[in-house]
Design goal:
The complex is a heterodimer.
Chain A: E1 26-27, E2 33-37, E3 47-48, E4 55-56, E5 61-64, E6 73-74, E7 79-88, E8 96-104, H1 125-134, E9 161-166, H2 175-182, H3 184-198, E10 202-208, H4 212-221, H5 224-227, E11 230-235, H6 244-252, E12 267-271, H7 272-284, E13 290-297, E14 304-309, H8 314-320, E15 328-333, E16 340-342, E17 355-360, H9 378-382, H10 389-397, H11 401-406, H12 417-421, H13 428-505, H14 512-521
Parallel strand pairs in A: 1-14, 9-10, 9-12, 10-11, 13-17
Antiparallel strand pairs in A: 2-8, 3-5, 4-7, 5-6, 7-8, 13-14, 15-16, 15-17
Chain B: H1 2-25, H2 32-40, H3 54-62, H4 75-86, E1 105-109, H5 119-123, E2 129-130, E3 138-139, E4 159-163, H6 177-188
Antiparallel strand pairs in B: 1-4, 2-3
Helix pairs in contact in B: 2-3
The chains are: A alpha/beta, B mainly alpha.
């Protein structure tokens, strides 16, 4: 039995998970219109490779990855591209982003796929990673980091431990639990492929103890031989146990700061749903075109997990889940702790959308106005990243960004524990998010102004050089003019000398005449 | 008495030599304060401060010739940073030099109208305009600092100012202000 280690802080939260996990996963209908944003992952935006009017098939790549950290986008069903235009996407800013819109034809005709079955064991890890990259697989746990990068062990670091994250610590969300209960084999197949790509020694699957069915299903799906390398580990239910760094601490007792990547310590963490997607990509040759989304909350009459085609609008999805819009007061994408509120239902389900949570007026906490900080220190006790939320708050309020970085603002995982316990109802995480994005913006400005400075200096250098060149040319011209004037004098002198010489010539010997001629030529 | 004077004089000579040597050995080329000021300035090179560019303005601030509130593109943020660096009191932007823009802007050239006169290319301090005589010109938006210096020389008025659109990558969370008001209210009570 593996010894588990508790991370600092954290909270015991009411799970609310039973609401959405009573029934098996429902396959959601394919909508008439699919909206595929080009930016669904961390890194560079994908570039469209189809045009308006093109017919596309299910699983066809419609936008390709651009740059190293990027992921392609695939059509989630067959149909015709009707627009490539800015549409609303689920984002706290409600900024529109370029999307490829497909009008589906209902045939759901697949593009030709090349299943690799067990061949992958003969493929080299780099080829395997390219295959996964082209399948558009990104971290499905929420961050959306392109998975193929996290399947590269790097030249130096050998990977000792591959961790699958099935903790799903946030209340209400059950999409990973449903996947583990119903499709454990898919997860394990994906895990074995990941293990092959990383050449990892041990695999651990961490699951919170409030999901006994999931733990049981995963354990039963393992063959005896697999049990020697894969270990399903029950971890205590404590939010945020499913955060990457906290999970690593729990399972291996290694603590990482913001600048350290798990891979530097020989550890890689992937979400269980990502593993299943990798399995699909390699074994079946099918790219990522659907995911499981939890639709839950008191305003939903059919709360459940839905297997949804990516690009389905939340409107269509919530209609299937029988949303009572008059009851709904707020709609949150993600969980109650880390999710964000959206106001429009038009935005599509993204690769990273794990939950749609409705909140009714009765559930909504009474509008609490923020009060001054009383320095009680509750936030410090619950912070799982071992930070000083109170200090961070003061400095963020004063916009003292330098101090914030000294207090390791970027180690904050925005889990929301501090906001949850704050007796003064201060929106602490909002302050940290503000400060983080503001620091990012300042850095971008700084970089841009550095480039502008360089370009301006070069511009001036060029102007200066041109001035000098012009001067030099003018000087040369003058000199030449002077020279030619001088040489006129010279020629007069030469003519005079010649005359003298000619006068002498009659007496002198003939050989000196040649020298004189040479001189005149010059 | 004499020994004391001699010892002190000796010490003075030794330290004098040491300081003299250090001054030569560790001499810094250029003025580091100017570099620090220049690093804060936004490098728009717009000349609104009445100097020929950001660096000349930085030199003028360092020599005490110019005030710290003459940079409209930098706005409040730059004034605060300069005040911090130079240990002076921050003051509001001098309106004589212009007002702070609400959003960052770049210019675009209407390529239909452009006659290819190259005047804007010569005016651009950061070489962000591309083109040749009697050929269409265009602005490299990524390099444009929004100084608007290319607009006056244009004989056909085909250069327009457009705000930089916010994207998902450049969006920042707003300052949680509603709470601030509340706090001040309760603070008064």
């Amino acid at each position: 039995m593996r010894k588990l280690n508790a991370f600092h802080g954290g909270l015991k939260l009411e799970g609310h998970k039973q609401i959405s996990i009573q029934e098996p996963i429902i396959t959601a209908e394919i909508p008439e219109e699919l909206i595929h944003p080009l930016h669904q992952h961390i890194g560079d935006t994908a570039q469209p490779i189809v045009e308006v009017g093109d017919r596309v098939l299910t699983g066809q790549m419609i936008a390709q990855a651009e740059g190293f950290i990027s992921a392609p986008v695939h059509a989630a069903s067959s149909g015709t591209v009707i627009a490539i235009e800015p549409r609303l996407v689920a984002h706290p800013s409600s900024i529109k982003d370029t999307c490829i819109v497909i009008k589906t034809d209902g045939k759901d005709e697949w593009i030709e796929t090349t299943p690799h079955n067990e061949d992958y064991k003969r493929m080299d890890p780099s080829g395997l990673r390219n295959l996964i990259r082209d399948s558009g697989v990104v971290g499905l746990g929420g961050a959306g980091f392109p998975s193929y990068i996290k399947l590269n062990p790097g030249a130096k670091n050998g990977i000792s431990t591959l961790i699958l994250n099935g903790a799903e610590c946030e209340p209400y969300i059950t999409c990973d639990a449903a996947l583990m209960i119903e499709r454990p084999r898919e997860i394990i197949d994906g895990l074995l492929i990941m293990r092959h790509a990383l050449q990892a020694k041990v695999c651990l699957i961490g699951i919170e103890d409030n999901k006994p069915e999931a733990i049981q299903a995963m354990q039963q799906a393992l063959t005896l031989q697999e049990k020697t390398i894969i270990d399903v580990i029950t971890i205590p239910t404590r939010y945020p146990a499913g955060s990457e760094k906290q999970l690593i601490k729990t399972l291996t007792n290694i603590e990482l700061n913001a600048n350290q990547l798990p891979v530097h310590n020989g550890i890689v963490v992937h979400n269980v749903a990502t593993a299943a997607a990798v399995g699909h990509a390699v074994l079946l040759g099918k790219p990522l075109i659907s995911r499981i989304v939890t639709v839950t909350g008191a305003a939903i009459d059919r709360p459940n997990n839905y297997d949804v085609r990516l690009g389905t609008s939340m409107q269509v999805l919530s209609r299937q889940a029988e949303l009572q819009s008059h009851k709904m007061e707020r709609l949150v994408v993600g969980g109650p702790m880390m999710g964000f509120e959206i106001t429009e239902l038009e935005s599509p389900v993204l690769k990273t959308t794990n939950c749609l949570l409705t909140i009714t007026a009765e559930e909504l906490p009474q509008e609490m106005h923020a009060m001054p900080c009383i320095r009680c220190g509750d936030c410090i006790r619950v912070c799982p990243a071992n930070l000083l939320p109170q200090q961070l708050y003061w400095h963020a309020r004063a916009k003292d960004f330098e101090k914030l970085q000294q207090y390791s603002l970027f180690d904050c995982i925005e889990c929301g524990c501090c906001t949850y316990v704050c007796p003064s109802h201060i929106p602490l995480v909002h302050y940290y998010r503000f400060a983080k994005t503001e620091i990012g913006a300042q850095e971008r400005d700084r970089k841009k102004s550095d480039i502008a400075r360089q370009r301006h200096e070069f511009n001036q250098y060029r102007a200066e050089r041109k001035k000098q060149d012009d001067e030099e040319r003018r000087r040369k011209k003058k000199e030449l003019l002077k020279k030619s004037q001088q040489s006129e004098h010279k020629q007069d002198a030469i003519a005079a000398a010649l005359a003298r010489v000619n006068a002498k010539k009659e007496k002198a010997p003939a050989n000196t005449d040649i020298d004189n001629k040479k001189e005149t030529n010059q | 008495m004499l020994e004391a004077i001699l010892v002190l004089a000796g010490l003075a000579v030794v330290f004098g030599l040491l300081l003299g040597f250090a001054a030569i050995r560790f001499k810094i080329e250029g003025d580091p304060v100017v570099d620090k000021i220049d690093a804060i300035l936004p490098q728009t090179q717009c000349g609104q401060c009445t100097y020929a560019g950001c660096r000349p303005y930085a030199e003028a601030i360092a020599s005490g010739e110019a005030d710290i509130n003459q940079c409209p593109p930098g706005g409040e943020q730059v004034i605060i940073e300069l005040a911090d660096l130079l240990d002076r009191e921050p003051k509001p932007l001098n309106e004589e030099h212009g007002t702070e823009k609400e959003a960052k802007t770049v210019v675009i050239i209407d390529e239909e109208i452009c006659i290819g006169c190259t005047l804007c290319i010569q005016a651009c301090p950061v070489d962000a305009i591309l083109g040749a005589a009697k050929q269409m010109h265009t602005v490299i938006a990524d390099e444009c600092t929004g100084c608007d210096l290319c607009i006056p020389p244009c004989p056909v008025d085909c250069i327009y100012i457009v705000p930089i659109e916010e994207t998902l990558e450049t969006w920042t969370w707003p300052y949680p202000d509603s709470e601030q008001d509340q706090e001040e209210e309760t603070g008064d009570a």
